[in-house]
Amino acid sequence: MEKMQLYPPGCRVLVAEDAIAGYGLAHPWKLHRIPPLDGFLERLPENAECLYVHDVAVLPDRRGGVARDYVAGIAELAPASGIATLALVSVYATRPLWEHLGFRAVTADGDLRAKLACYGEGATYMLHDLAAT
Ligand SMILES: CC(C)(COP(=O)(O)OP(=O)(O)OC[C@H]1O[C@@H](n2cnc3c(N)ncnc32)[C@H](O)[C@@H]1OP(=O)(O)O)[C@@H](O)C(=O)NCCC(=O)NCCS
Question: Which domains does the chain have, with CATH numbers?
Fold first, then answer.
């Protein structure tokens, strides 16, 4: 709810074939930083460096192209905020999917590594350089 208020254009109900298929949440953030997992953001950072994709979830029977369209949609939003990078934490073995969509795994520094550990094994911080596409 808070993220919708802070950055409404990044928070979308995803639709496939005229039916609700899922949702996506993204907001401006700093590079190599992960927002608090369950806490409030309180405010968006000044001089944001990326659009951070906080969550994307698609109903099992509606999957196929929905996440791709969401990423394409927020990629269009980014330049208006002076942002050229999308970021996310890949979980649940979704890394190949995000790589397919243009994200690349980034080596995490100590602080980032500690935060990633809270997401479980295999959590990977990934960036998508929009200027490279
Ligand atoms: C992850 C999730 C959002 C993907 O939704 P989706 O609508 O099925 O994703 P898309 O079909 O748009 O996938 C994007 C692309 O990645 C491809 N892809 C999917 N799995 C892949 C894999 N294992 N390896 C390589 N590419 C893969 C798709 O074929 C698609 O390619 P296309 O754009 O050429 O058609 C959905 O499976 C989900 O809700 N999972 C549970 C929640 C979750 O894991 N969220 C993400 C947390 S990081």
Answer: 2-132 (3.40.630.30)
Helix (H, G, I), strand (E, B) or coil at 127: strand
Q: Is 97 in the pocket of ligand 1 (CB under 6 A)?
A: yes
Q: What is the pLDDT of residues 47-106, one digit of tens each?
A: 999 999 999 999 999 999 999 999 999 999 998 889 999 999 999 899 999 999 999 999
Rounded distance, CA 113 to CA 129, Å? 21
14 Cα: distance to centroid of ligand 1 (angstroms)? 14
Find all residues with CB under 8 Å of 122, minimum gap 6, and list them.
90, 91, 93, 95
The pTM score is: 0.94
Alpha-helical regions (H) of 12-62: none
